[in-house]
Amino acid sequence: MSNTRPIISQEELLESWQGHRRLTRRVIETFPEKELFEFSVGGMRPFSEMVKEFLAIAVPGLTQIVNDNNVEFDETRSEWKNKQDLLNAWDKQTEEINTLWSQISPERFHEEVNLFGQYKFPAIQNIQYFIDNEIHHRGQGFVYLRALGIEPPFFWER
Amino acid sequence: MSNTRPIISQEELLESWQGHRRLTRRVIETFPEKELFEFSVGGMRPFSEMVKEFLAIAVPGLTQIVNDNNVEFDETRSEWKNKQDLLNAWDKQTEEINTLWSQISPERFHEEVNLFGQYKFPAIQNIQYFIDNEIHHRGQGFVYLRALGIEPPFFWER
C-alpha cells in the first residue's frame, strides 16, 4: 500500500465482511431446504454450492495468509449435507475468521500470497476478492429466491 | 476511522471500484439491446434499471460527499433510452468519479454524510455501499444473461 491517505482500517474491513456474512447467513436460512440444494436458474449452480465455495475460500484462504503455507482449494466437502450443516459450518467460520484476522499483521496485507497455489496477489486483494465474490454470488441467490416467489432479506440489513 | 492498522488507501479503493465499473460496463455491453431493457427473472427489474440506479448513486453521491450539499436521488432519467446512452453516461461518470475522488480529503471519508437526505453514515460506509450494491445487482445481471443462454464476462476480469 502507498501509506498515503489510508481510509479503511483492518478492524473496519473485518466488520464490513462479517456484516456481509451475517446477510449471507440470512439468505441461507431463507431458502427452503430442498431448493437450497436443487434449485437454480439458467443452468447455474444451486445456492448451496455457492455457499460451499464461500466456506472453501474464507477460513482456508485466511489460514494460508496467516501461516504462509500452501492450502488446497476444496469446495466438495461431503459432510455438508443439509441446511443446518451449512449454517453450523458458517457459524464456526465466523469465530475462526475473527481469530485468524487478529493474527494478520498490517504489513502482511500488502505482501503477495499465491493463494491456493494459483492466485498470486497482495493478501489485501485476495481478501477483497473473498468479500466481492460472496456479494456477487449472494446477489444471484436473491434472484433464485425471487424466482421461487420468496422475498429475500433486505440487502442493507447487516 | 481508528487510525490504527489502516490497510486500504484512498487510491486503492478508487482502483478497486473502477475495476468493478469496468466489469459492469462489459456486462451492459453483453446484453442484447432489447433484453437489457425488458428481460428479467422472478418479477425483478430489467438490468437497465439497475444500471440507472448505479448512475443515480455514483456521481450524485460523490458530489454530495465533496460539496456537502443536498443531492436528490433520481434514477428515472428519461434521456437514457438505449444501450449506447447508458454506455455514454457510464464513460462520462468514469471521468467524473476520478475528478471527484481527488477532491475528497482523507478526513472527509470518516465524517457523517446524510446521503440523499436519508442514509446517515460516515462517507466511507456510503461509498462501500455504492460498490457493494453494484456488485450485488451486477451478479443478478449475470443470472439474467445465463437465463438468456448468454455467457457473462469473467467475474475476475477487471
From TrEMBL, chains A, B:
InterPro entries named in the record: DinB (IPR007837), DinB/YfiT-like (IPR034660)
Keywords assigned by UniProt, alphabetized: Metal-binding
Plastid as UniProt keyword: no
UniProt key word Metal-binding: yes
MF terms (GO), sorted A to Z: metal ion binding
Residues the entry annotates as binding a divalent metal cation: H137
Lineage: superkingdom: Bacteria
One Pfam entry name: DinB
Protein family (similarity comment): Belongs to the DinB family.
Name by which UniProt lists this protein: Uncharacterized damage-inducible protein DinB (Forms a four-helix bundle)
Species for this entry: Moheibacter sediminis
